[in-house]
Design brief:
Layout lengths: L1 H10 L6 H16 L26 H5 L3
Organism: Paenibacillus medicaginis
Protein name: DUF5302 domain-containing protein
């Protein structure tokens, strides 16, 4: 009889409090942070750096007559 009740309890979604939900979400994020191959915004690839010597200067102050 107890085996039958255990199976029913496992099938129903267990109600958890907010703190437990936050802990689970944080653990999931930490696990994903260890695997940067996943898609998403950052994607795990970095851009090659460019030389700063050829950068176009910002002339906004001259255009707008700033002090």
């Amino acid at each position: 009889m107890s085996d039958n009740q255990d199976n029913q309890n496992r099938e129903e979604p267990r109600k958890i409090d907010l703190a437990e939900a936050v802990r689970q979400k944080l653990a999931q994020k930490k696990q994903q942070a260890g695997n940067p191959q996943g898609g998403g915004f950052h994607g795990g690839q970095t851009k090659a750096l460019k030389s700063q010597n050829t950068k176009k200067p910002n002339n906004q102050r001259r255009r707008t007559g700033g002090s």
